[in-house]
């Protein structure tokens, strides 16, 4: 077990955000949190990461956990080259620094390693942030809206990148508005309700890889859309 969440309750000024949430995360899980803006997806990532510690319930990490968080906005340091940005996590933690070129190859940015962040497109900056996260060899990766702000082509490229670089041992939790990306990538999908008196819904995605848009795919998509149609919320396919 990488992570276990038990009876988690989160409030802001007595306003209920997360209501009695339970989740078990095993090694190799790819879990997507889906829901409209303001429903608590990013809040839960912050709780898991330890950025926010004001909650009731339990968040239990494996003692061996190494966690990396890829934020929605780029946090690349503008005065450093791409290479130095990716090198930095290991440098700060006194870890071996010989994997940077390999990681940049994985994310398709090796030829841009001496570029500065302002020389990279939005899609390239997303991949650069992923490279920085991979540099510390985490066993738990958190992504906050990795597809946000990307056009269709860059979204597709990033989905392909995820499928290519995350092997069966890599554990990932991401937030997203996009149903299609969640189904293509995830083993489990958590649906966040707007009405906090409702419980979150967990969907197991038992589809083989590579995944195709077939009847089983569209059945899962329908379950998600039906869940939100009851709450009068539109989620992007």
UniProtKB/TrEMBL annotation:
ABC transporter domain span: 3-219
Keywords linked to the UniProt accession: ATP-binding, Nucleotide-binding, Transport
Keyword Hydrolase: no
InterPro entries registered for this protein in UniProt: AAA+_ATPase (IPR003593), ABC_transporter-like_ATP-bd (IPR003439), ABC_transporter-like_CS (IPR017871), ABC_transporter_ATP-bind (IPR050166), P-loop_NTPase (IPR027417)
One Pfam family here: ABC_tran
GO molecular function, one term: ATP binding
Keyword Membrane found: no
PANTHER family in the record: ALIPHATIC SULFONATES IMPORT ATP-BINDING PROTEIN SSUB, TAURINE IMPORT ATP-BINDING PROTEIN-RELATED
Identification of the protein by name: ABC transporter domain-containing protein
Organism: Bacteroides fragilis
Lineage of origin: Bacteria, Pseudomonadati, Bacteroidota, Bacteroidia, Bacteroidales
């Amino acid at each position: 077990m990488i992570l276990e969440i038990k009876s988690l309750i989160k409030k802001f000024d007595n306003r209920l955000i997360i209501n009695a949430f339970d989740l078990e995360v095993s090694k190799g899980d790819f879990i997507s949190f889906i829901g409209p803006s303001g429903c608590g997806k990013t809040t839960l990532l912050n709780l898991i990461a330890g950025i926010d510690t004001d909650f009731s319930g339990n968040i239990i990490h494996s003692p061996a956990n190494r966690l990396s968080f890829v934020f929605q906005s780029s946090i690349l340091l503008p005065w450093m080259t791409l290479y130095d940005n990716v090198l930095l996590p290991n440098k700060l933690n006194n870890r071996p620094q010989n994997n940077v070129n390999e990681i940049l190859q994985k994310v398709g940015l090796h030829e841009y390693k001496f570029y500065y962040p302002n020389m990279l497109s939005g899609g390239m900056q997303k991949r650069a942030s992923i490279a920085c996260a991979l540099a510390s060899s985490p066993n738990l990766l958190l992504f906050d809206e990795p597809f946000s702000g990307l056009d269709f082509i860059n979204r597709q490229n990033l989905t392909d990148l995820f499928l290519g670089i995350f092997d069966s041992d890599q554990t990932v939790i991401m937030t997203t508005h996009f149903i299609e990306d969640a189904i293509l990538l995830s083993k489990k999908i958590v649906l966040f309700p707007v009405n906090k008196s409702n419980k979150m819904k967990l969907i197991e995605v038992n589809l083989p890889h590579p995944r195709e848009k077939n009847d089983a795919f569209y059945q899962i998509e329908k379950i998600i859309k039906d869940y939100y149609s009851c709450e009068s919320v539109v989620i992007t396919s």
